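## Example record

The block below lists the input lines for one assembly entry, exactly as stored, with component labels intact.
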Amino acid sequence: MCGIIGITSTKPVTQRIVDGLKRLEYRGYDSAGVATLESGHINTRRSAGKIANLQSVVDAHPLHGHIGIGHIRWATHGAPTENNAHPISNGKLSIVHNGIIENFAQLREQLTAKGHVFHSQTDTESIVHLITDHLDHGSSPKEALHKALNQLEGAFAIGVLFEGHDLLLGARRGSPLVIGVGEEEMFLGSDALGLAPYTDRLIYLEEGDWVILKSNSYQIYDHNAAPITRPIVHIPTDNFQIAKDGFAHFMLKEIHEQPSVIGQSLSNVLDPCSRLPSFEGLNFPQVNAFDTINIVACGTSHYAAMVAKYWLEGLAHLRVNVDMASEFRYRKPTLISNDICLFISQSGETADTLAALKHAKAHGQFCIALVNVATSSMAREADAVILTDAGVEVGVASTKAFTCQLIVLATLSLALSLQTKASSPEQVTVHVEALTHVPTLMGQLLTQTETYSQIARKWLMGAKDILYIGRGTLFPMALEGALKLKELSYIHAEGFPAGELKHGPIALIDQDLPVIVLAPHDHLFDKTLSNAFEVLARGARVILLTDTIGAKKITQINDHIIVITLIETTDLTAPLLYALPLQLLAYYTALHKGTDVDQPRNLAKSVTVE
Ligand code: AGP
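Predicted structure tokens for the full assembly:
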């Protein structure tokens, strides 16, 4: 989840590298650095902390040169200190690296025994000395890099400068790396977002590819060092606009973008004439009611998968397994050939989910990627792609991408219910009609942000623990609400099925402990309300999210319960609409606590390491 920028040009590169890193800061922000070649010599500037610290260092000690590499780090090996910041240099070469070198310890031991002296705690430094060792034995930079690549195990995307050589080299295995084609300059990036201000002509390197870049040429090689070509794709740079547009944080902007992007994502999957969900272009295999769909994802995307399980089973009568990607392939799942595997990921780069996709594909599954980035590794690896149309999501906490996943999964469930004949077109039309009102209803909810700010300030920001409970599709929403809150405010929060409380978690209930209860007035409302009263009776502070019908049934009102009356919902619209209060409670709790809303500690937007 680190970020890489490299430039070889006929013009100075330092500031453009730093600016590119600023656009990638959401990928990781423990430390940063830049190195350039000036008259054949490598000079490096690094800093711990945010990219602003590196900017200060570069301002105070300018770097010159027309070839350079930069890196913004999310620490995997070695504390987030200046000494462990990339680029890692040793006087002969300088490297920036995304990923994890799994055999770094053996390499370090072997190279130390050969007299190499290590100065950092990073796995990356093993690459530096491995390449150096080949240089010391007479290899050229190109030969040394290729030999070293064949000795590395694990996932990496790297950028390399060599002392005395006006070259910029890059390589990828398991971590994305893209080339940007400019006018008398070439770029290297861990994703297109960082290069968007400089070029809209991109080349996506594939697994095992490596490249030598000069300001006016490039050559890509495969893992056997055979020259290969990859297509240049044109990506409109307005796809990568990242600006807060007057909002205090990217997350708040992205919360408020939901009505529009939900509407867009929905219209993308509705047939314009019949207004029925249509995934014609997906070449979706024919499914029958007894087929199985395996859904695999991480984090918030996993909770979208859990919600989809209720819909696909309830509406389309399909069998659905849901797995956390980090567990999927290690549990040795029984994968029947031609079953369908659906991989959900905002970034399309999450290493666990990507590895699960490759595992499923190798076992004959029809793999579909539901992603928010059309050019992502998962999109390129899958047999079919469904795009959420959320636009760039910069806030580390996923919001609009999540609700776009939900709206697409809801319409996919409806489309499959038609295919399995579990629903009639008339029944599906009623559901679609409800979904088309969601953007307007979201807009109404977003006029009540002050309510959530006050609750956050009064009841949540000082809490030590916070519980979330719900039933049916509101159970995964309880998990999502807890994740939002904990990842933004650093307060411990947990989600439970409301029916599970009495089997242990109710022991956690303490005086004034906040419990957020998700209770739309559906067939499970009465049971969920009972659970709310059970915790209320034990001193908890209950924040109960319901609707006007539900609110009328709440008789016990005292100073330990707040009822938030939302809009009536259906089984399909409830998760979409209850997502917003959960996002707002988390956002305002973090805001009042003063944590870093867009870049919470220890996190990164795209987890490209396992
Ligand atoms: C969500 O708020 C978190 N940032 C995190 O759980 C995220 O959903 C997870 O890392 C999966 O990311 P992906 O959707 O890009 O695969």
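Residues 298-301, 345-347, 350, 353, 396-398, 487, 606-607 surround 2-deoxy-2-amino glucitol-6-phosphate (CB under 6 Å). The chain has three domains: 3-240, 242-436, 446-610.
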